[in-house]
Here is the input.
Amino acid sequence: MSAKNFRIIKSEIRVLGIDDGKFIPHTQGNVIVVGVVFRGGCWIDGVMHTRIAIDGLDATEKLASMINTSPHRRQLRLIMLNGVTFAGFNLVDIKALNSATGLPVIALTREKPDLEAIHQALQNLPDNEERWRIVLAAGEIHEITCRGSKLYMEMAGLSGADALKIIELTSTRSCFPEPLRVAHLIASGITP
Amino acid sequence: MSAKNFRIIKSEIRVLGIDDGKFIPHTQGNVIVVGVVFRGGCWIDGVMHTRIAIDGLDATEKLASMINTSPHRRQLRLIMLNGVTFAGFNLVDIKALNSATGLPVIALTREKPDLEAIHQALQNLPDNEERWRIVLAAGEIHEITCRGSKLYMEMAGLSGADALKIIELTSTRSCFPEPLRVAHLIASGITP
Here is the structure.
């Protein structure tokens, strides 16, 4: 899917922020993943959830299904992920998620992803070549500045300029977009 | 505990909004209850949770424990509940919650609580006299107006005038306080 150019970015653009709950690493089981629908950087319109396997390979498919079956789907204009690694090393293929949902995807982190360390850790998991392919499929890691702080961004289905505008627009409370800040608060606040 | 008089109500007063998740009525088991810490009617500072029994009698104790052990406890100034009935007929004793936490409590609903129907329904449950005592312990049901809409309020540990001010202050998005609107979106959005 080619990059979407936003004709206009509305101040109340509906953005879905996604993060995963807490879990004990290297165990078996599922983790809850929470999606929060924000209007711009201000109001919460809704919350959705799914469950993915710890160190599994179902994150992309489960997120796409959560989004496509949501009553909020038609209002959504963008997906924001707290990085591409969920539930340990259950990796989200942001290009595939973009294709499956028709929505642009931004994966954002405060720390620069350490590709060497990820590659190393993947050696201990099954399907490590497929996982590494997904990591690389996220494409270039862009260092950006938001309200004076450095952030690291990967993206699929939109231009870098539009991505930056939407990150700035939604970072109303801190130097991180509200949809992701709040998705993190919810996902970690509802898990033991 | 006597009614607290707020010397001043700050625009960013920390309010905890509480609501329960979805469940199948008349079944056995637990339901998640979510608490959302708001600064006034605008920003989310944190999320907490506990679990209570469907039609159980542990709501007051579990909420008090969730609040008193939270890292947000010292910032909190008020508790708002989406009514006093949680998880079916697991009733919150708002006076006891006020005493156990030292925080004023407002229970707010859009519909007027139908005491006759509640009394009737309680006949089918164990400990129905204790449950009815808790319903009555919430005291007078005040009909109030918030942004032109009627709401029904019970309260413990604060004056009616202060309760009204805080409800108005936090109802930034709709005719219902944000802490309760968002607690409902989260609790229902994370349950199947």
Q: What stands out?
A: Residues 178-189 of chain B form the longest helix (12 residues). The interface with chain A takes residues 32, 34, 42-49, 173, 182, 185-186, 188-190 of chain B (CB under 8 Å).
